Amino acid sequence: MPLSKDQIVPALITLLGADSVRFEEAEMEGYLAEPRRRFKTSARAVALPRTVAEVQAVMEWAHEVGVHVVPQAGNTGLVGGQVPLYGDEVIVSVSRLGGTRHVDAAAGHMTLNAGTTLEEAHRIAEAAGMLFPLYIASQGSARIGGVLGSNAGGVQVLSYGTARELCLGVEAVLADGSIYNGLGSLRKDNTGYDLKDLFVGSEGTLGIITAATLKLFPKPDHHETALLNVAGPEAALALFTRLRERAGSTLTAFELMPRIGFDFQLKHKMIAQDPTAERSDWYVLAEISVPRGMGDGGLAAMLETAMEAGLVGNGVMAESLAQREAFWTAREQMSEVQSKEGASIKHDVSVPVAAVPELIARGSAAAKAVVPGIRPVPFGHLGDGNIHFNFSVPEGGDNAEFMARDEAVHAAIYKVVLEMGGSISAEHGIGQLKTALLKEVKDPTALKMMRAIKSALDPKGILNPGKMLG
Ligand SMILES: Cc1cc2nc3c(=O)[nH]c(=O)nc-3n(C[C@H](O)[C@H](O)[C@H](O)COP(=O)(O)OP(=O)(O)OC[C@H]3O[C@@H](n4cnc5c(N)ncnc54)[C@H](O)[C@@H]3O)c2cc1C
C-alpha cells in the first residue's frame, strides 16, 4: 500500500523543515502543471531540498519506506517525465540547488548545481568571457538537472552537440541515497563504463543529478545571420550541404521553416510583416558564428554564389542585433503560433539529414491520407535531421474531431519515420507520452539492457515510476 499524505508530509517536514515541503493542491499547482497541460494528476507532496545532503536524506527515506519519487528541475519538459503519473509520488524539485561551484575559463569548463537555469548558465559563462552554447526556447526556466536529464538539444547542436556532448561529468544521488561523484573535468578517461552518460538522458529514472561539469567554448566575435527564401526542402538541403562545406563548424544553425508558419504569425499578429521582400513557400534561417580574429565570416559571399547556383531566392542578412533577434523570435514562435490557430498534432522526429526532404514529402502525404485538409507545419533543425513535424487542424475544422484522429496521424508519421531508419523522439524524450511506443519500436536487446540497468540502480523501482520503460 502506498503511504498516505498524512504519513509522507510529516516525514518530509522532519527531514527538510516545513519551509521546504509543499502539500496543498494550490501550492503544488506550479509543479504539477506542465507546459502543454496534457498530463495532470496530483502528488503526495513537493520536496524542495536546499543541499545535496538533503536530497540524499529524502532518497534514503523514500528508499526505505518505498515512496515513489519524481525528479523535477524547471518543469518545462514536453513528454510528462517531470510530473507524476499515479498521484502517489513525491516530486523532488532541484530548483533550490542553484549556484556555481567552480568556473575555469582557461581549462574550458564550469561546475554548476543542478537548479541553475540555462539562462543563468549562459550568464555565468559570459561573465568568465566564455560561451555555454545550449540554446532552447525554454532556457529561462529549464534547469541544468532537467536539461541533462532530458539530454536537451536546441538550435546549435549542429556545431556543439546536445547536452550529452557538452557534459564532462555529473554528480547524482542514487535511488538509495548514495552519491555518485562523477564531476571530473577530464577530456579523456578510459577507465571503464562511462557512468555519467547513463544519467544524461535518463529522464529521472536512474538518479537525481545534483551538479554537472559543463564544457565552455570561446565566445564568437560576431554572428552572421540570414533569413532566406528557398524553393523547398531539397533546395534547403543542397544549401545546407554547400554552406557546411564552406563554413565547417562555424555554421552553428540551419533551421527550415514553412510559409504557413509565417502566415499564422502574420494572422495572429506575432510578426508585423513578411519575413523577406518576396513571398516563398519555404525559408531557411542560417547562422555563422565567427571566431575572434577571423574578421568576416563570409556568409554574404557564400550566399551570393548559392543564389547564382539557384539554391536561394530572396533573402535578408541581419544588420543589427535586434534584427537577428527578430529572425530568431519568428523561428521560436513556429510552435507557439499553432495553438492560436486551433488544435495541433505534434511529432519530434529525426531521420538521416539527407532524408529530411523525403520525410517531409512522405509524412505530409501520409497525414493528408488520414485527415484530408490537415495542414502540415514541419519546421526545425534540418542540419541535425530533426524536424518538429506538426500538423494544424484543417481550416474551419472542428478541434475535437481533429484530435480524435491524433493516434492515427501519429501512427502514419511514425511508420514513415521508422521505415526511413529514424527516431520517434529526437529531442524531447519518452517521459509518459511515448512509453508504449518505445516498447514497440526499440530493439528488444536494447530494451533488455535498459531494464537491466534500471533494476541494478533502482531495484525497488522508486524513481520516476511508469516513465520511459513504463
Ligand atoms: C517553449 C519550449 C521550447 C523547448 N525547446 C526545446 C528544444 O529546442 N530542445 C529540447 O531538447 N527541448 C526543448 N524543450 C523541452 C524542455 O525544455 C527541455 O527538455 C529541458 O531540457 C527540460 O529542462 P527542465 O529543467 O525543465 O526539466 P524538467 O521538465 O523538470 O524535467 C525533464 C526530465 O528530466 C528529469 N529530471 C529533472 N531534473 C532532474 C535531475 N536533477 N536529475 C535527473 N533527472 C531530472 C525529469 O524527471 C524529466 O523526466 C522545450 C520546451 C518548451 C516549453
Description:
The protein has 17 helices and 19 strands. The chain has 470 residues and is an alpha+beta fold. It has 4 domains: 89 residues, Uridine Diphospho-n-acetylenolpyruvylglucosamine Reductase, domain 2 (2-Layer Sandwich), CATH 3.30.43.10; 119 residues, Uridine Diphospho-n-acetylenolpyruvylglucosamine Reductase, domain 3 (2-Layer Sandwich); 122 residues, Alpha-Beta Plaits; 90 residues, Alpha-Beta Plaits. It has a 5-stranded antiparallel β-sheet with strand order 5-6-10-8-9. Helix 9 packs across helix 11. It starts with a helix and ends in a 13-residue tail after the last helix. The mean pLDDT is 96. Bound molecules: flavin-adenine dinucleotide (FAD). Flavin-adenine dinucleotide binds next to strand 3, helix 5 and strand 10.
